[in-house]
Amino acid sequence: MHSLKPSIADLRRTCHPDSVLGRASGEHWAGRLYMRNLSLYLTRALLPTPITPNGVTWLMIGSGLLAAGFLGLPYLWAAVLAFVLIQLQLLFDCSDGEIARWRGTSSPAGVYLDRIGHFSTDAALVAALGVRADGGYSSIGGWTTLGLATALLVLMIKSETELVHVARAHAGRALLADDETVMRKRGLRNLRQLVNYVPFHRLLLAIELSLLAVAAAVADAVLGSLTGTRILLVVLVPIAVIVVIGHLVSVLTSRRLR
């Protein structure tokens, strides 16, 4: 059994294997850049406590939804607080897996809750941006509808990815490796490479979106209106449509469903 008071070096060796940090699509750039270094200190502080990895995941879910709740308020401070809460969500997201790996208690329930957290947060933030563009929770209108429609597209993108695993499981196929996404058509492979160089789809993810929301809120404060927030929402709509269609084509023309 591992120690309840490990060194940071011991934690890093056990909790940061190449299978985690080397994931092509599972590890966010912010995690590799700075949060994985910070999360080890939170993990070490939580190990002597009775909190479970799933308990930390629930904190991750709560911080993400709370961030969306604040983003719906048409104030600069609210957008900044939402950004801070998303950073806190990333911290919890790193720490829950580290605790599970150190204790050897990884479970399907943990994976399930992790997906719930990311899906709900990404969709809720876009919906909250629509509420903000309308002027807040007391001014629900057309912008909120646009935000909700975009949130639905975000959920469709998430579903397109996860349904690959569901389809393969129902067909009795083995799980895919993290990098097993090879496309059969050369033109689509070139398009995928272009997206890797210009990852506009990341604008729909919580970390990037919360940062853009702060920039839009600053523009709102300078202009004395909600123009910045509304422009951001209008930009996100076609991006979401393009990603939904492009991702569906990518899945159907790749080896993932063969």
Task: Please specify the SSE layout and strand pairing.
Blueprint: H1 8-15, H2 18-21, H3 29-46, H4 53-71, H5 76-103, H6 108-134, H7 142-170, H8 186-197, H9 206-223, H10 227-252
Helix pairs in contact: 3-5, 4-5, 4-6, 5-9, 6-7, 6-9, 6-10, 7-10, 9-10
Number of helices, where a helix is a run of at least 4 consecutive DSSP H or I residues: 10
Please trace the helix and strand order, writing H or E for each element: HHHHHHHHHH
Coarse structural class: mainly alpha
Question: Beta-strand percentage?
Answer: under 5%
Q: What's the overall geometry? A: globular
Helix coverage percent of residues? Answer: over 70%
The largest β sheet comes out as: none
GO molecular function: phosphotransferase activity, for other substituted phosphate groups
Transmembrane segments: 56-86, 194-219, 231-252
Keywords: Membrane, Transmembrane, Transmembrane helix
Protein name: Phosphatidylglycerophosphate synthase
Summarize the structure.
With about 260 residues, this protein is mostly helical. It has helices at about 10-15, 20, 30-45, 55-70, 75-105, 110-135, 140-170, 185-195, 205-225, 225-250.
Would you kindly provide a written description of the structure presented here, covering whatever features stand out?
With 258 residues, the protein is mainly α. It is 73% helix and 0% strand. It has helices at residues 8-15, 18-21, 29-46, 53-71, 76-103, 108-134, 142-170, 186-197, 206-223, 227-252. The longest helix is centred in the middle third of the chain and has 29 residues, at 142-170. 34% of the residues are buried.
